[in-house]
User: Which sequence fits this backbone?
């Protein structure tokens, strides 16, 4: 290669830096700029008004108003790393430092030209800021599935959502602007966690691995002291918890109009509605009693739930008297598991996070008065399993690997649920119509010790040799 030759990425960076400082005609810039209505198609902009500012500078200023100036990151050989250390951030807040490093125009140019990768976080004290919706497909899933998932979210949850393919081509990044007003940073982090759990309740509809919300703001902890029995807070910063890093968008120069008009969400007004997706919509449009989607209508299953619980109104969870399984809990669980069993994941798993997201949606919409509780859910599942209502394929799960247990309701109990949810004359319950309840499956109760419970599997890191390999090694050593 010649001495004065440059790679395409370096040429893009040089062009970007030139567009930041050049005072020539804006038509010479390789990037789209704000057109001057007074300029002709062949001539330059009027001398009185001067040339318009390049789109690059405008985009950088727009981004700077939506991200933290202090908590940002850069991709290194060891992965993403924060641009400022925690001790440096604390020093700045305590006025022990005058300045910190920030994302400059040069760093923006490196990111947009592909020479570097930079990350952002939501600003800690601003009234609005940017967050990222990360649809991952690292270990499973496809880019097509991630794009379909982003399109579905844009159509049903966040209108005008701007999204683009990730750099490695194994996922999609979407960007949302939050209007937080007087909401503190910790409340924003809690809201983002709730949004992540909300969206994860629908990720099973697409060929993706995980939906995450990144770019959480930094939270600050101040020193406190005791005074006459009261805990007082000082203005001295004791510790900071840096937010999760999110990758800056790369395609905004070519799609600036889309990014500028991306979804703006008011934290206080977002309702977290129960969304019906493509496959759920098909089930919901079927006639009543055809076993379609009845999540939110658990009351028809109350007689069946009471029968499974042995006509008991509640079952205590362990030795804790404050946690117990009621008939409503069992009916809600039957409604959710029936839906999940009819819409199983591609790999046959039924993760707890999926049940939790659907349960919390029912609680947030007022469908049930019972909040999600992991211990209560596990106890209700065990009672259902003891009654013979669960078909286990694999009760092992792998912590941290994204592999859940494989199980679902039995075909017999699914048929029974369909009988209970069918529309009856005059909307009368089955018990009021005379005769016995329709029972299509037998309550074959197992012994208490035979209840199958999920079991964590931790794969061995060291591969031990077998007897033949040991024998060959010993012969070679002799």
Assistant:
């Amino acid at each position: 290669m010649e001495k004065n030759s440059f790679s395409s990425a370096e040429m893009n960076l040089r062009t970007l830096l030139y567009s930041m400082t050049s005072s020539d005609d804006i038509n010479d810039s390789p990037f789209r700029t704000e057109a001057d209505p007074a300029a002709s198609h062949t001539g330059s902009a009027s001398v009185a008004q001067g040339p318009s500012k390049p789109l690059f500078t405008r985009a950088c200023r727009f981004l700077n108003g939506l991200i933290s100036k202090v908590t940002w990151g850069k991709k290194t050989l060891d992965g993403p790393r924060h641009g400022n250390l925690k001790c440096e951030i604390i020093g700045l807040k305590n006025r022990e430092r005058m300045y910190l490093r920030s994302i400059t125009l040069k760093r923006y140019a490196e990111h947009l030209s592909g020479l570097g990768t930079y990350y952002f976080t939501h600003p800690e004290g601003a009234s609005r800021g940017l967050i990222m919706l990360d649809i991952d497909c690292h270990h499973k899933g496809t880019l097509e599935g991630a794009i379909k998932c982003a399109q579905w979210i844009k159509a049903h949850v966040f209108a005008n959502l701007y999204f683009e393919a990730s750099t490695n081509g194994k996922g999609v990044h979407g960007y949302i602007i939050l209007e937080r007003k007087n909401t503190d940073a910790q409340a924003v982090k809690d809201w983002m966690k709730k949004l992540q759990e909300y969206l994860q309740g629908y990720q099973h509809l697409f060929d993706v691995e995980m939906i995450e919300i990144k770019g959480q703001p930094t939270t600050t902890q101040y020193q406190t002291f005791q005074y006459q029995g009261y805990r007082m807070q000082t203005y001295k910063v004791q510790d900071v918890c840096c937010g999760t890093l999110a990758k800056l968008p790369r395609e905004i120069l070519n799609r600036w109009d889309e990014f500028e008009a991306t979804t703006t969400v008011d934290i206080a007004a977002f309702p977290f509605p129960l969304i019906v997706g493509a496959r759920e919509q098909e089930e919901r449009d079927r006639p009543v009693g055809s076993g379609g989607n009845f999540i939110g209508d658990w009351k028809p299953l109350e007689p069946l739930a009471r029968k499974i619980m042995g006509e008991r109104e509640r079952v205590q969870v362990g030795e804790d008297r404050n946690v117990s399984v009621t008939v409503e809990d069992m009916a809600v669980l039957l409604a959710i598991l029936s839906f999940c069993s009819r819409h199983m994941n591609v790999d046959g798993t039924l993760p707890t996070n999926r049940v939790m997201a659907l349960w919390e949606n029912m609680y947030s919409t007022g469908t049930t008065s019972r909040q999600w509780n992991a211990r209560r859910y596990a106890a209700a599942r065990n009672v259902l399993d003891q009654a013979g209502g669960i078909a286990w394929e694999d009760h092992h799960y792998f912590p941290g690997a994204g592999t859940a247990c494989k199980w679902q309701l039995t075909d017999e109990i699914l048929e029974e649920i369909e009988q209970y949810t069918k529309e009856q004359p005059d909307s009368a319950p089955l018990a009021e119509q005379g005769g016995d309840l329709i029972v299509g499956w037998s309550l074959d109760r197992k012994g208490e010790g035979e209840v199958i419970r999920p079991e964590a599997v931790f794969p061995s890191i060291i591969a031990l040799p077998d007897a033949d390999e040991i024998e060959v090694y010993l012969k070679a050593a002799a």
